[in-house]
Each structure stands twice: as structure tokens, then as C-alpha cells.
């Protein structure tokens, strides 16, 4: 385990910096309430008390980004910026503008940089969207999860069912061409008609990107405690598969095509370039409490608590909580695991002889496209997407 500011980036990691996609992720750890399914590094005001105000976090962020730029030597301008959390929209337009200014001052932005912020629909407004558009944000991602009130209650989501679609319309009116809505499917008690109504609302909103994730019951969450007590059942795998097929069919009919197993876009320009940087082995600096970074095969992560984060940076030290250097085997596994989830798939020459043989068996089983395999790529079929993790295990075993 590392101690603060002992981040070691060897020359081998820094070689090629700037030839690969380079992004900046900023973690905003603040939430108004805690959702029952969430295990992200987030804190409510009551949990933090007076020990970690947003103003202190922002000052710490500025210091981290300055230290980051120096540590990287001559860092490339950021191709992408993604402000996530937590609930970044709680910072307001002024706070989000200050975040982007800090990135711009430390790293600079590429001329065509994609700049995204996540937002909770209840803490957005036309004024917020107009303000962040003027500040330089190009993309907004809104948490919707469901349009069914009883599903939102199970998830402990506090927004009103129609608010995400209203917020998406406000963002588009403010000049955002790229707007995403997040969905969660498979929540206990969600019926097929509930999911269909949610999808209808999403597609009628005119957004150009949709992310949809199967509900995962994470250890330590309120949802996990309810499942353990028998108050609600675990999500059913067969229901999850049926839900996925329904939403994929409805997306395709509306002109949104899958480009990653859990993501659909109306065009290539609508794809989330920041996330593609993760999936294609790019570099990124993750700033903020608990944020993870990766440069040239070295991964590290920050200390989690906002108070410790800001205190460490006040001493002019990077808030590193730990780091690891990925082995060739680690990097191979991650490449297969991530690229196989993309619509373009994985180049067959990325696999060893055993992996190629297993890919051909997977194609015979209907999990990989035979036509694409003949063309030199391992591409998941519709059935393969339902079993993507199992296909990965076969290719790297």
C-alpha cells in the first residue's frame, strides 16, 4: 500500500503519453441523499459534517490537478473530461465552471474536447444547463433509472418520475447536442410494462445516448441489507436477460445502436468518447477523493475521505491511496474483457493460439459472429452479449 505522494511513474509508463487518448476524470463526492443500491464513494452533508466543505474540495482539486500536470512532465491537453460522482450538479453552474477552469489551467483542453458532467435531474434547471454550456461543457448525463414510481422507491431515488425527461429537454434547449439518460433494469418489482414505459419516455425525449445497466446488489448497501433480510428478492437472471432483449430491440427500432454492451448511441459522434478511452486502453488522470487513474500500465487510486483528501493536498502531496503496475497478463485480460464488449469487437490477433481456438468454439456456439471471425475480429452476437463475461472467461482461460 502506498503512502501519500509516493506515486511512482517509471519512464516506461510515460513513454507514449499523448499518443493514446488522454482524459481527466473529476470525482465529486457529494450527494443530497444516498441511494439504496449505490456503493460509490459519496457522502451526504450529514455524513461529512463541517470537516469537508465543497469549497475545500474544490481547492484540493485545483492543487491535485496542478501537481498532476507537474508529475506527468509535459502532459497532453485533455481529449475528454468527465465530471462524475456523487452529484456534480449540486455544485451549481458556477462550481462546475470552476472545475472545468481548473482542468483547463492545469492540462489544457484539446480543440474538440468532449466535456461531460453527470447530473441528478432534481438539482438541474434551465439556468444550470445554460451556465455550464457557456462554461464549455459539451455533454450531459442524467440519472433517470426508471419512470415507474414504485421502482424508484425500491432504488431510494428521490426525483419525480417525469423530471429526467424534462431535464433532458432543458439541456437540449440550452444547446447541448449530446445528452445521455441512464437506466437501471431488473429492479425487484419492476414489470415488463414498467420497463417499456421507461423506454418509451427515454426515446420520446430525443436524447442521442442511453446507458442501461442491470441492477447489481453490492455488498454493504442498503439494498443488500434488504435482500439479506428477505424484504425483496435478488434480481432474476432470466428476467435480466429478457429485459435486455426488450430494451435493445426498442433502441434499435428508434435508431440507437449498441456500441458497448450497456450503451447505445444515435450516431458515432454521440458515443461517449471518455468511456471509449477507458475501454480502449487510454490514459487518464482521476482527480478527487477515491478517483482512479491509469497511465501506461500503472494504475493508482486516491484516498477516499474528502477530509483526508484535502488535508493531504494542503501539504502539497498527491493523495495517493495505493498503486499497482499491471503485468502483461493483467493488460491482456483487461483488453479482452473491455474490447470484446464493444460493437467492433476484439482483433483476433490479440488472442493466443488457445484463445483463437476457443473463439472458434464460441462462434460455433452462437456467441461470436462467424462472419466477423473470418474477417479477423471476435465480435459478440446478440446471444453473446447476454453472456459477455462468460465469453471473456473462455477466451483467456
Structural features, described:
With 397 residues, this protein is of the alpha/beta class. Helices cover 42% and strands 20% of the residues. It has 17 helices and 14 strands. The chain has helices spanning 11-14, 45-48, 54-71, 92-106, 126-135, 149-155, 163-173, 192-204, 222-228, 237-253, 273-279, 306-314, 328-339, 353-364, 370-374, 382-386, 388-396; strands spanning 22-28, 78-85, 109-119, 139-145, 178-185, 209-214, 257-260, 263-265, 283-287, 292-295, 298-302, 320-325, 346-347, 377-378. It has a nine-stranded mixed sheet, with helices on both faces. Strands 10-11-12 form a three-stranded antiparallel sheet, with no helix packed on it. Helix 3 packs across helix 12 (306-314). The longest helix has 18 residues, at 54-71. It is found in: Cytoplasm. Its main location: cytoplasm. It comes from Prauserella halophila.
Strands in their spatial order, largest beta sheet: 7-8-6-5-4-3-2-1-9
Question: What is the CA–CA distance across the termini?
Answer: 29 Å
Which structural class matches the secondary elements? alpha/beta
Radius of gyration: 21 Å
Largest sheet: 9 strands, mixed
The number of helical elements comes to 17
Shape: globular
The proportion of residues in beta strands is 15-25%
Uncertain residue segments: none
Query: How many strand elements?
Result: 14
Please state the average pLDDT score. Answer: 94
Helix content estimate: 40-55%
Identify the quaternary structure here.
Answer: single chain
